[in-house]
Design a protein that fits this description.
Elements (H helix, E strand, L loop, with lengths): L4 H21 L30 H13 L4 E2 L13 E2 L1 H11 L4 H11 L1 H4 L6 H4 L3 H11 L1 E2 L15 E4 L2 E9 L5 E4 L10 E2 L10 E4 L2
Parallel strand pairs: 1-2
Antiparallel strand pairs: 3-8, 4-5, 4-8, 5-6, 6-7
Helix pairs in contact: 2-3
């Protein structure tokens, strides 16, 4: 087949759109399933850090959903006080705000652990305002302080809404919604212009390196 210049441009545009669809979205949600569809009961923590009558696991899940419902814009900025206050954020802020909704101040907790164990993080000059917003630091912190769980995404019963999942350069909160194969979606913030914050990326191109549960 012989392609005209215009045909080549159209083919390139369609290829780019297809590639974007694969990246962003496996990401496109259909109706979604829940653990009940796979006879997986929802996990509830025995602990309620903020004493609001809702267990930590549920609070973390709800906090993540409430945060992304504000549709934060993606941009990495430094903030005095640590927590973004202007509608911008990055992936780590989803986790920080989810835990904040459960009564955990991730900024203070990470800073305390870094200062007590600087060699574990490889940090010589701690900065509480930014250290808790770095994926590598959070992976170390949760590995040290939270319950470590399987990174095998095919073991679907071990993945619960409100869990924390870490990728090599990314982090998010596991959703209570699942795909037709039972693999949960992830609540996350990955790039500028992101339209959906709850996406099927758990078994995608990122590659899971950590899976944690706070309590």
């Amino acid at each position: 087949m012989r392609w005209s210049g215009r045909g080549i441009l159209w083919a390139a545009a369609l290829a780019a759109l297809a590639a974007g669809a694969v990246w962003a979205g496996r990401a496109v949600l259909t109706r979604g399933y829940t653990g009940e569809d796979f006879d997986i009961p929802a996990y509830q923590s025995a602990h309620d850090e903020d004493g609001d009558g809702v267990d930590d696991q549920t609070d973390v899940l709800r906090g993540a959903k409430a945060y992304v419902a504000t549709r934060p814009k993606y941009e990495s900025r430094y903030y005095d006080g640590g927590y973004p206050d202007d509608g911008y954020g990055v992936c780590t802020d989803v986790v920080a705000q989810a835990l904040r909704a459960a009564g955990y101040d991730l900024r203070a907790l990470v800073d305390e652990d870094i200062r007590a164990n600087p060699s574990a993080y490889g940090i010589s000059r701690p900065d509480a305002n930014i250290d808790f917003r770095r994926v590598t630091n959070l992976d170390v912190y949760f590995r040290r302080t939270a319950l470590s769980l399987t990174t095998d995404v095919t073991d679907i019963a071990q993945w619960q809404g409100g869990d924390i999942v870490v990728f090599p350069h990314h982090i998010g909160i596991v959703s209570d919604r699942r795909g037709r194969d039972g693999v949960p979606y992830v609540i996350h913030h990955a790039y500028p212009g992101q339209r959906q914050y709850e996406q099927a990326i758990l078994d995608g191109q990122y590659g899971v390196i950590g899976h944690y549960r706070v309590s």
